[in-house]
Amino acid sequence: MSTPPFLTLPPSARALRVVTARGQFAALRAEPAGAVRGSALLVPGFTGSKEDFIALLEPLASAGYRVTAVDQRGQYETGGPHDDPAAYAVAALGADVRALTGALAAEGGTGPLHLLGHSFGGQVVREAVLAAAAEAAAAPGGATLPWASLTLMSTGPGPIDPAEAERTRLLVEVLPTMGLEEIWQVIQQMEKADGERARRRPSPEVAAFLHRRWLANVPQALITTGGHLVAAPDRVAELAAAVTAGLPALVLSGVQDYAWPVPEQTAMAQRLGARRVVVADAGHSPNAEQPAATAEALLAHWG
After folding, report:
1. In 170, 182, 205, 210, which residue has its Cα 20 to 30 A from 222's Cα atom?
2. Alpha helices in 161-261 (DSSP H)
3. Domains of the chain by range and CATH?
4. Nearest to 128 by CA among 276, 239, 203
């Protein structure tokens, strides 16, 4: 999971709920002080939340972008059904992204909309783009996609790395019989035994938030999305067609990544014909670990 460096919202930002045709989604919204150059929708990954992007809000808003970061269905403050696996299938989550896109467009005055997905969120936004592209191709006379660009951050073409997949399978297996608090305590013991992770312990405030966020997850969402991560199909060739048809893409990562190897992400960028940015001194969450450099790369792509 991403660990936000802080939790205090910048002056440009506020919490809100975005109302869509598929329900309400908890969000953080940052507004530029002056003219709006464009807008962005930021989608978090597995076990993540809108707070993963908190350090990006101010630099992106200062550059003229209206930024909306959301909790996906089943995450933190959005919630979702506890007994409906289909609600958390990647196609359903992709439909949520399209509904959010429509709701943001309906607000008006926001300029071109840029779409970003982090980690598992990258595969969700990929699903949204593919569904929209298929619908556009079937429309009489064709149609354009509702996004000005796509960013895939710390995500890969298919399943996660085998070592991470094994840990995720274990989580999926125990969720039906163990409570989230019990699992959390096990995770904490494992991290204490890991010297490197123990040295990177967050502040007490952020640690309390991570605990609170974990307990707010819908277990069924973790089971379904975790199952996807260990067996995700490679849909890069399909996505490349949408990119070639006029959706500029950026593949961004840190120099290390435990979920998808960095060379695998580079190869995905080549297959997509996408820009490629590797952020120095960052791992799986450059949005939280190196927000200034990440914002710079995003602004270059959006511009």
Report:
1. 205
2. 162-174, 180-193, 195-199, 204-216, 219-229, 236-244
3. 13-302 (3.40.50.1820)
4. 239
